[in-house]
Amino acid sequence: MNVYAVVLAAVSSFLLGGLWYSPALFGRAWNRENGGEVPQGHPAKVFGISFLFSLVAAFAFAWFLGPAPELRKALLCGAVVGLGMVAASFGINYQFAQRSGKLWAIDGGYHTAQFVLFGLILGLWH
């Protein structure tokens, strides 16, 4: 496993999330769909724990792919994991929580893009 690629994947996920949930993309819609309230918490704690989760996800995905995945397979696996596992699992929770389909699309879309990005990095950098 290329540890540097895994760390880069985690960093890229973190940066993607910053853009994805910013007002430039889906931040306003996400906020509306969550009832208009921005969750509270100490920024260092929120960002630090979020980065650790990104790192765990990148390591798990790299382990899942194996040491030298071909790019096409890594991208396809990223789409399957992001949409077919993570977003689908969110969909179950969101139905029981009575959350909107728009919120599911924003959050599920982010995680699908996240794992495809993981696949891109891990498929290119062995």
UniProtKB/TrEMBL annotation:
The protein, known as: DUF1761 domain-containing protein
Taxonomic source organism: Stenotrophomonas humi
UniProt KW keywords: Membrane, Transmembrane, Transmembrane helix
Highest taxon in the source lineage: Bacteria
Keyword Transferase (UniProt): no
InterPro entries xrefs: DUF1761
Positions of transmembrane segments: 6-26, 46-65, 71-92, 104-125
